[in-house]
């Protein structure tokens, strides 16, 4: 017997027929391997058969071969159709499998949207009344008890650092806001370049104070907040006059604490207008003042 290999059964049948100089019906054919298209080239298989003319095969060997794929048993066209249908079934099965895997991945990555503490901090003044209600249950404590606990926590946090910091002031700014002030020869080091340390420290303290007591935070470090407020108020003075004249205005992009200071100042100046923080396509934040609040909501 000789072995023949090709892309399809039709091709290997033709090769065998040409090799032995006879028709396919005059050959005994054993299919060694069915052809397979595979997926994206993976799992692709060629057709492999073994063939021999019937007259040269001994009768005793033929008796032991119970199953033969011969031309007289099945038409090539019918066989090709069956192979094609089998391939289509395999492709559909693979598509269903990929679809199920995608659904599983989507379930794994579909984490419920939970507003982060940083988002709460950034959107603090974005609420209509300038305050945010805390949905979680918070154990109410006496103000003096809160001040004592926060003061002890701050001392514990900074006692082993290398910064020269005086006694940390902790007091209530209003009923919903805690005021914390850092002073001392090294307190300015807590601000960092462009205020990045100040912002990080404010987030840390805010997460703790808001989570435990449901309070907002006003943080002062070496008069950084005071200077920022002074600078933004000077910037807003001519803008306030423009708003009074034209009715609306959009500030330049403001970074960090500046956007919150500007928002608070403009809301105090124009309580009847729509004043809110917006974000442009580059991710920069600015304050928008509009004549009609209801149209922007």
From TrEMBL:
Segments for region (Disordered): 85-110
Organism per entry: Halarcobacter anaerophilus
Protein name: Protein jag
Stretches assigned to the RNA-binding protein KhpB N-terminal domain: 3-54
Pfam families recorded: HP1451_C, Jag_N
Gene Ontology molecular function: RNA binding
């Amino acid at each position: 017997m000789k072995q023949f290999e090709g892309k399809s059964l039709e091709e290997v049948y033709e090769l065998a027929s040409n090799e032995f100089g006879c028709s396919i019906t005059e050959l005994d054919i054993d299919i060694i391997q069915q052809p397979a298209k595979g997926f994206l080239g993976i799992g692709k298989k060629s057709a492999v058969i073994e063939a021999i003319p019937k007259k040269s095969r001994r009768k005793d060997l033929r008796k032991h071969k119970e199953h033969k794929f011969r031309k007289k048993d099945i038409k090539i066209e019918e066989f090709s159709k069956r192979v094609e249908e089998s391939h289509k079934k395999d492709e559909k099965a693979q598509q269903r499998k990929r679809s199920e895997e995608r659904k599983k991945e989507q379930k794994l990555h579909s984490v419920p949207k939970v507003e982060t503490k940083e988002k709460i901090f950034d959107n603090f003044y974005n609420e209509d009344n300038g305050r945010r209600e805390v949905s979680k249950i918070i154990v109410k404590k006496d103000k003096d008890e809160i001040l004592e606990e926060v003061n002890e926590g701050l001392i514990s946090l900074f006692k082993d650092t290398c910064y020269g910091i005086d006694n940390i002031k902790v007091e209530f700014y209003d009923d919903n806001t805690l005021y914390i002030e850092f002073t001392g020869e090294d307190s300015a080091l807590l601000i960092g370049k462009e205020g990045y340390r100040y912002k990080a420290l404010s987030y840390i303290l805010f997460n703790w104070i808001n989570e435990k007591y449901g309070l907002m935070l006003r943080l002062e470090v070496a008069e950084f907040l005071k200077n920022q407020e002074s600078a933004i108020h000077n910037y807003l003075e001519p803008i306030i006059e423009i708003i009074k004249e034209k009715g609306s205005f959009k500030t330049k992009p403001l970074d960090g604490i500046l956007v919150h200071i500007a928002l608070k100042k403009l809301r105090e100046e124009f309580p009847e207008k729509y004043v809110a923080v917006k974000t442009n396509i580059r991710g920069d934040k600015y304050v928008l003042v509009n004549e009609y609040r209801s149209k922007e909501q």
